[in-house]
Amino acid sequence: MGIDAPETRNTGRKKKGAFGEAAKAYVTQLTLHKRVQLELDVQESDRYQRLLAYVYLEDGTFLNAHLVANGYAILDTHPPNVKYVDLFADLQQQARQEKLGLWAE
C-alpha cells in the first residue's frame, strides 16, 4: 500500500514497465517462502477486494519504504490510506536524485 511498482505485463490501461521484471524478481527474492508482518491503514481492502497493507520482513525491514528507497517502486497513495505518504515522498526524492532503480538513465 502507498506504492506502485512497474508492471511486468500489459494490463488494461497500464503498460509493461522497463524495470518491472527487475522489481518483481527483487520482491520475490526478499519474500518468497518467508514470513512477513502486515500493518493496515484506514481501509483494509480496495474496490477489487485486494488486501491493502504495509509489509514488514522478518528482520524488521519496512518493505514498502525499502522498495521506494531503492527505486523499485514509486509513491502512489490513495486517501484515506496516507499514513506514510511523507516518508515515501522523501525516499522517492532521494532515490530519484541518486538515480537508483527505475530512476537510473
What does this structure look like?
With 105 residues, the protein is an alpha+beta fold. The protein has a single domain (2-103), classed as OB fold (Dihydrolipoamide Acetyltransferase, E2P). It is built from three helices and four strands. It has helices at 20-31, 63-69, 85-97; strands spanning 2-4, 36-39, 54-57, 74-76. α2 (63-69) packs parallel to α3. The longest helix is centred in the C-terminal third of the chain and has 13 residues, at 85-97. The chain is globular and about 35 Å long.
Write the layout of secondary structure elements.
Layout lengths: L1 E3 L15 H12 L4 E4 L14 E4 L5 H7 L4 E3 L8 H13 L8
Antiparallel strand pairs: 1-4, 2-3
Helix pairs in contact: 2-3
The average pLDDT score comes to 91
Which outline best applies? globular
Major sheet, described briefly?
Answer: 2 strands, antiparallel
Q: What's the Cα radius of gyration?
A: 14 Å
CATH topology: OB fold (Dihydrolipoamide Acetyltransferase, E2P)
Percent in strands:
5-15%
* Main structural class: alpha+beta
Helix content: 25-40%
Order of helices and strands: EHEEHEH
Lateral strand order in the biggest sheet = 1-4
Query: What CATH architecture do you see?
Result: Beta Barrel
- CATH structural class: Mainly Beta
- The first-to-last residue Cα distance is 26 Å
For the record, the count of structural domains works out to 1
Low-confidence stretches: none
Give the count of helical stretches.
3
* E-strand count: 4
